[in-house]
Amino acid sequence: MRVSIELELSNNEFEHDYRRAFMSLIKAAFQRESDILYKRMYETKTDKPFTFSVFFPELKGEQNKILLVGKKAILNFSTNDPEILIGLYNGIYKLKDYTYKTNQTFKFLSADLKLLKTIKYKTKIFKTLSPILVNKKGDNLKFLCPKDAVFQEALNFSVKEVCSHFLNIVNPEFDIKFIKHQKMVITHFNQYMTTNKGIIEIAANPEILQLLYDVGIGVRRSQGFGMLEII
Fold first, then answer.
1. What pLDDT is stored for residue 111 in this prediction?
2. Residue 219: what are its φ and ψ, rounded to 5°?
3. CB of 36 closer than 8 Å to CB of 28
4. Could you tell me where in the chain the CATH 3.30.70.1900 domains are found?
5. Cα–Cα distance between 92 and 140 in angstroms, integer?
6. How far apart are the C-alpha atoms of 223 and 26, rounded to whole Å?
7. pLDDT at 41
8. In the beta sheet, which residues pair with residue 98?
9. pLDDT tens digits, the chain, 231 residues: what are they?
10. Residue ranges of the alpha helices (H) in the chain?
11. Range(s) for CATH 3.30.70.1890 in the chain?
């Protein structure tokens, strides 16, 4: 289940570490809509069943390490939980506008609820809408790309964790490979992180493919990473 929310920005400049602002907006929307939903997401330690990506349609590049994003942003949000999707939409609509760090205000313009895509086959090719983060087991701040020897093991481990948590499948069978890969270093929470963009092919039972499509792949999905689109 997906929705694209169009937002007007008060400031046409954004720091590279912009995902934190949208995390804050999502959190505020949940809090505005439902105390129960907010507490479920943020007052208990839980693997959040959603992911998101951000698109700046008027992006003009950068200047002095600041992104020149223009006056609009599209927040693409995906989840497997209708309550979460409705909570986000209603919360942002009720907020009308939201100010982050005093220098950027989001104003709600419109929302486009996407048609539900149901995966029925055992192999799908996806493109990344937001980069995939894969961290080394036992080191949450060591981020990997395919050239690293332990990348595949770490990616597989993150997928197994998601399947166990949301599908109660302990030993899922799947195969993941990059058809096209681009390494991308980004800034997030004032840290440099190696991320992965491109096109990937995943072979698995349809329910696993559907889960990865709905909630994302890799780690820190609810922080704006690992969102996929079907090709």
1. 95
2. -105, 165
3. no
4. 123-230
5. 31
6. 10
7. 94
8. 106
9. 999 999 999 999 999 999 999 999 999 999 999 999 999 999 888 899 999 999 999 999 999 889 999 999 999 999 999 999 999 999 999 999 999 998 999 999 999 999 989 999 999 999 999 999 999 887 888 999 999 999 999 999 999 999 999 999 999 999 999 999 999 999 999 999 999 999 999 999 999 999 999 999 999 999 999 999 999
10. 19-33, 35-42, 82-95, 151-167, 206-215
11. 2-113
The residue among 80, 76, 64, 142 whose CA lies nearest residue 113 is 76
Architecture of domain 123-230: 2-Layer Sandwich (3.30)
Going by C-beta distance under 8 Å and a sequence separation of 6 or more, which residues neighbour residue 163?
Answer: 169, 172, 208, 211
Q: State the pLDDT at residue 214.
A: 98
The CA distances from residue 25 to 19, 107, 149, in Å, are: 10, 11, 37
d(CA 222, CA 77): 10
Distance of CA 133 to the CA centre of its chain: 10
Which residues fall within 8 angstroms of residue 70, CB to CB, at 6 or more apart?
9, 12, 56, 57, 58, 59, 60
Residue partners of 122: CB distance under 8 A and separation at least 6: 203, 204, 205, 206, 209
Residues sharing a CB contact under 8 Å with residue 44, sequence separation 6 or more, in sequence order: none
What is the model's pTM? 0.95
* 2-113 classified as CATH 3.40.50.11270: no
Q: Can you give the three-state secondary structure of 153-164, one letter per residue?
A: HHHHHHHHHHHH
